[in-house]
């Protein structure tokens, strides 16, 4: 074997020098630039994808806001038609008062029109005196309202339709078309149609006849609407300096509401979208997510079609931001990376070549040893190195340190195993003690709370029952004193009776929660299916009003032992909650079947709905006393009392629900002995 010294001096050194030169230059000046170019190319593609992803997210926010506008309009119209004040004004039968009420409601709800029309199109009253005496009733949403279903949608009104509502709306909808490059050629000089968010809800008049309450908002030149979308999507500092977010609402391909500027101080109303975007979005129904030329510059753009109540694509919703700042940032980044690479290459290549000789071989051996140790081979060693300089001494010292490290590792592993065993034992003891302490603390706190609530509730209920009795007695005295004239205030007397009865029911529920032992009834053997059948007539009026389909399936053959009234109370409470969760109708499922639970025979009762469902955090609290989602309509005790009644019989009650997928309450009761 050749002496290592001979490898440094003599002709062979020239060959090594050339190879070192090739090794130094090829990675730095050939492979690294290629890798850097591929990396920059991939980064550029990912950068563009990130911009498209952002504008897609921006479009989602704008779409959700438009959907919320539709939803709010429908909720407001439906709530207005069902409000007590509206019924009172209609009952009085004064047209002037009804017109004033509609006018006030229109301003309060920020609507552009609000009127009541008969099924035949005859105008009954309107918030504006300019509304025509006959209006269209062939809109799908009005036909739905005639059939008893409230509906909301975007529709396109012809100029004549707008003039029938109000000449001012027709004038506001008119926009002069501005010649726009790349747009589809047209002979039109102006756009006079109107894009309208309109909602219709069925109502009852004083004489019992049906009518339709219709309200809506014109989106043409509705700058508040489009500026709100722009503020939601492109909040301050959401885009880099120099970029600008824009939002636009199109009727067909014409900008009818936008914050895009034609020039300083004037919005680009009346300009039109390019033919390529129109073809993709309006003709093909696709969402456009790409760069597009908007009025005077290139924007990262997102367009989606808007569909009217007939299912026809009638316009577009657009959001986008200026592309130029991002393009400039990309070029600046690429230029900086290239410049940095050249600077590093120019500085590092000479230094690398100067110190490369006589370094690689011993360093590679040391590096190999380190890699073996890193993979877990603590017995790896570098061995003798044919170099007596600093690198050789480092190799020898490394072997010595590895010997010490191997010995320390053995000792540490032994100590660690012993320490882990002790820590695990102490941890288990602490966890067990902590769990016992937490359970005891929670039980004490709940006992104290429920005891205090029981005492307070019993006292309050006793104090409330006395005024209730006095009010009921005096109400009967008033009826007898007034005599036949009591019929004039029949509605008011009925409301008083209902509210007094409601107070009495609340007091009873409070007492039942506070002192359940006083309300325990006689235990009886029942077939759950028969009890459910007896409960349905009690809630039939709520089922009919909500257009709810009831599906029953009774396969349980076992009997349960429970007070019949208490079991009816639990089922009626669950059915009423299910009805309230389906304001627009749905399916109520009532199921019974035999089921074993924890090696015990019993019966399972399921009350399920297809309503709005509830979030996980809400579902976790529904059995808590005084927790309610009905605000002023509920006491928060119904499900808590139901749980108490079921548990008292040795049963369980549970809930399974997800937002938008309905809810299912499951009751399990043991089989009667």
Topology summary:
Blueprint: H1 4-8, H2 12-81, H3 84-92, H4 95-108, E1 113-117, E2 123-126, H5 140-146, E3 151-157, H6 159-165, H7 167-173, E4 175-176, E5 190-191, E6 194-204, E7 210-218, H8 223-233, E8 245-251, E9 254-258, E10 261-263, E11 266-267, H9 275-283, E12 288-294, E13 297-307, E14 313-322, H10 324-355, H11 360-374, H12 390-482, H13 490-514, E15 525-526, H14 528-535, H15 540-545, E16 548-554, E17 560-561, H16 564-580, E18 586-597, E19 600-609, H17 616-619, H18 638-648, E20 652-657, E21 663-670
Parallel strand pairs: 16-18
Antiparallel strand pairs: 1-2, 1-7, 3-6, 4-5, 6-7, 8-9, 8-14, 10-11, 12-13, 13-14, 15-17, 18-19, 19-21, 20-21
Helix pairs in contact: 2-8, 2-10, 6-7, 12-13, 14-16, 16-18
Polypeptide structure, described:
- By secondary structure, this protein is α+β, with helices and mostly antiparallel strands.
- It contains 18 helices and 21 strands.
- It has helices at residues 4-8, 12-81, 84-92, 95-108, 140-146, 159-165, 167-173, 223-233, 275-283, 324-355, 360-374, 390-482, 490-514, 528-535, 540-545, 564-580, 616-619, 638-648; strands at 113-117, 123-126, 151-157, 175-176, 190-191, 194-204, 210-218, 245-251, 254-258, 261-263, 266-267, 288-294, 297-307, 313-322, 525-526, 548-554, 560-561, 586-597, 600-609, 652-657, 663-670.
- The chain has a five-stranded antiparallel β-sheet with strand order 2-1-7-6-3, sandwiched between helices.
- α2 (12-81) packs antiparallel against α8, α14 (528-535) crosses α16 and α16 runs antiparallel to α18.
- The relative contact order is 0.06.
- Residues 1-17 have low confidence and may be disordered.
């Amino acid at each position: 074997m050749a002496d290592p010294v001979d490898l440094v001096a003599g002709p062979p050194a020239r060959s090594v020098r050339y190879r070192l030169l090739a090794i130094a230059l090829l990675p730095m000046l050939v492979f690294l630039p290629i890798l850097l170019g591929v990396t920059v190319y991939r980064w550029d593609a990912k950068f563009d994808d990130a911009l498209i992803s952002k504008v897609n997210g921006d479009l989602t926010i704008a779409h959700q806001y438009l959907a919320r506008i539709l939803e709010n309009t429908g909720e407001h119209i439906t709530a207005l038609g069902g409000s007590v004040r509206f019924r009172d004004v209609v009952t009085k039968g004064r047209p002037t008062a009804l017109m004033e009420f509609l006018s006030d409601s229109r301003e309060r709800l920020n609507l552009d029109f609000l009127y009541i029309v008969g099924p035949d199109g005859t105008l009954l009253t309107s918030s504006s005196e300019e509304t025509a005496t006959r209006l269209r009733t062939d809109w799908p949403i009005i036909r739905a309202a005639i059939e008893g279903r409230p509906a909301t949608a975007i529709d396109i009104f012809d100029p004549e339709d707008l003039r029938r509502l109000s000449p001012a709306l027709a004038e506001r909808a008119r926009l002069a078309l501005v010649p726009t490059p790349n747009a589809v050629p047209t002979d039109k000089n102006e756009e006079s149609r109107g894009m309208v968010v309109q909602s219709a809800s069925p109502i009852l008049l004083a004489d019992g006849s049906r009518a339709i309450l219709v309200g809506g908002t014109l989106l043409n030149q509705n700058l508040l609407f489009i500026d709100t979308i722009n503020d939601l999507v492109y909040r301050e500092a959401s885009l880099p300096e120099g970029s600008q977010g824009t939002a636009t609402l199109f009727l067909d391909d014409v900008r009818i509401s936008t914050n895009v500027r034609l020039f300083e101080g004037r919005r680009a109303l009346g300009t039109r979208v390019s033919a390529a975007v129109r073809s993709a979005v309006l003709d093909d129904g696709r969402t456009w997510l790409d760069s597009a030329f908007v009025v005077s510059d290139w924007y990262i753009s997102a367009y989606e079609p808007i569909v009217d109540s007939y299912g026809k694509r009638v316009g577009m919703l657009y959001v986008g931001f200026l592309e130029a700042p991002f393009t400039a940032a990309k070029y600046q980044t690429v230029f900086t990376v290239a410049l940095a690479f050249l600077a590093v290459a120019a500085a590092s290549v000479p230094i690398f070549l100067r110190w490369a000789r006589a370094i690689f071989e011993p360093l590679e051996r040391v590096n190999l040893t380190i890699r073996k140790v890193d993979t877990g081979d603590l017995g790896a060693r570098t061995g003798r190195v044919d170099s007596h300089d600093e690198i050789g001494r480092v190799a020898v010292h490394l072997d010595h340190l590895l010997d010490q490290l191997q010995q320390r590792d053995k000792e540490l592993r032994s100590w660690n195993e012993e320490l882990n065993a002790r820590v695990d034992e102490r941890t288990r003891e602490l966890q067990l003690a902590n769990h016992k302490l937490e359970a005891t603390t929670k039980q004490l706190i709940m006992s104290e709370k429920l005891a205090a609530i029981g005492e307070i509730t019993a006292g309050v209920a006793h104090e409330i029952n006395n005024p209730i009795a006095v009010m009921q007695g005096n109400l009967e005295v008033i009826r007898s004193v007034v005599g036949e004239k009591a019929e004039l205030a029949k509605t008011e007397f009925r409301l008083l009776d209902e509210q007094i009865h409601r107070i009495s029911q609340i007091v009873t529920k409070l007492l039942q929660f506070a002192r359940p032992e006083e309300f325990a009834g006689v235990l009886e053997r029942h077939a759950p299916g028969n009890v459910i059948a007896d409960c349905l007539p009690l809630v039939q009026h709520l089922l009919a009003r909500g257009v709810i389909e009831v599906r029953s399936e009774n396969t349980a053959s076992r009997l349960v032992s429970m007070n019949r009234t208490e079991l009816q109370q639990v089922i009626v409470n669950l059915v009423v909650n299910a009805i309230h969760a389906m304001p627009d109708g749905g399916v109520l499922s009532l199921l019974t079947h035999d089921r074993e639970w924890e090696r015990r025979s019993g019966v399972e009762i399921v009350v399920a709905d297809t309503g709005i469902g509830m979030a996980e955090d809400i579902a976790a609290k529904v059995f808590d006393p005084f927790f309610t989602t009905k605000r002023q309509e509920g006491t928060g005790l119904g499900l808590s009392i139901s749980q108490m009644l079921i548990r008292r019989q040795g049963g369980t009650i549970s809930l399974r629900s997800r937002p938008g997928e309905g809810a299912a309450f499951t009751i399990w009761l043991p089989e009667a002995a």
